[in-house]
Amino acid sequence: MIEESRLLAGEARDVLNLPGQIDPPLRERITRARRQGTSITVIPGDPEDDHQTLALRLLDRVLDEADSVGSVVVYLPQHATTRLSTTPELSVGGLRRVVGCLSEVSHTVENDGLSTTVVVHGIRRTLDAVAATRW
Fold this sequence. Notes:
The protein is built from five helices and five strands; from the N terminus they run ααβαββαββα. It is an alpha+beta fold.
């Protein structure tokens, strides 16, 4: 009962933070990861910024690594910057897969031994380049 409540609360926060933006396949992947014990949090960004796609793309890529990730925090675009953090730190191969969609985008990656943080800069200038990459 507590587990179901936790899952429903996460889904409700997702709906509030990303109204109508999570498609059914991504919703299913998020739910599956949460059921396996991965904590997934979406932090709202600038309500005027409609560039949520990149943040969702990063989240989708991290879900490929859900078996080895305990926590994911996605910071939606704020001042043309989005950020994603995982705990524990992503493996080299996992990180390569996650940032693979950012080859044309200005970004930084920090691994501190405990976590991985990917920061994407200047989303407005580079979103067209990302749109050309595979989801």
